[in-house]
Write a structure and sequence with these properties.
253 residues; mainly alpha; Four Helix Bundle (Hemerythrin (Met), subunit A); three-stranded mixed β-sheet; 10 helices; disordered N terminus
């Protein structure tokens, strides 16, 4: 993909956007929360996938980007929102005092596997890497102190962070409105990539208070998958497994 086809303003947006999605991976919940840790991580992941959906809708990494990005006022407004998200996810004092996060060393933090954003993030990284020149991302130049990993310690304060992330993403969508059918289609696609009913339930619970649209579609997807599983069940489904004899003690010897 040739970056020459991108406007200078759009190139700057790509760099700031890349910083934003990278910073999501530096925050995770304390394992001491038990199952709530998965729920908190999923709340953050839901916001991340909504941010990635926005980038796909405006074709941020394409030379054939949304024509609304040709408007300098729109581009400047988007730039301010993305810069605010980047600051929100990297400003140490706010993360600690306002949002209840604690800085930790990388080697004691368990890597979180995204439940819903994984496939869309993988596509974004592939397209980003296909750009033939550096597009101004600060990621490689962010000081080490800004790349500290953060652990969620206060669930109530973390909800404030989720609320503010959601409001910024809403602003991006307000600046470049999309047809409701498009947003529904993209969210449905993301949810259908989740093959575990337990993980779908996590997404449903994580989004029920903050992202009603995602929650509703997650509930519908979960119901559809359950219907398929129920249709496959029959009364002798475990008969073969139950009839298997234990392997001989000297098997493979």
């Amino acid at each position: 993909m040739e970056v020459a086809g991108l406007l200078i303003g759009t190139v700057a947006l790509v760099g700031t956007f890349k910083d934003c999605v990278d910073l999501f991976s530096y925050i995770s919940a304390s394992r001491s929360f038990g199952r709530d840790a998965e729920l908190l991580d999923t709340k953050l992941d839901v916001e991340k996938v909504l941010l990635l959906q926005w980038a796909d809708r405006v074709r941020l990494l394409s030379c054939d980007f949304d024509s609304r990005l040709n408007d300098p006022r729109t581009t400047q407004a988007i730039s301010r929102v993305l810069a605010s998200i980047r600051l929100l996810l990297s400003e140490s004092n706010s993360l600690q005092q306002r949002y209840g996060l604690t800085p930790v060393t990388e080697n004691i933090v368990t890597e979180v596997t995204p439940i819903i954003s994984g496939p869309r993030m993988a596509c974004f990284i592939k397209e980003f890497c296909a750009l033939n020149v550096h597009v101004g991302s600060r990621s490689k130049h962010i000081p080490a102190k800004e790349k500290i990993r953060w652990v969620i310690r206060d669930k109530a304060k973390f909800e404030v962070l989720i609320g503010e992330l959601s409001s910024f993403i809403i602003k991006l969508n307000d600046l470049t409105p999309a047809e409701r059918t498009v947003t529904i289609s993209m969210t449905t696609e993301d949810l259908e990539n989740i093959t575990s009913l337990q993980k779908l339930q996590l997404v449903l619970e994580a989004s029920v208070n903050s992202e009603k649209g995602v929650s509703k579609l997650a509930s519908r997807t979960k119901e559809n998958q359950q219907k398929i599983l129920d249709a496959l069940w029959h009364h002798t489904i475990t008969e073969r497994l139950d009839s298997l004899r234990d392997a001989h003690a000297k098997t493979f010897r």
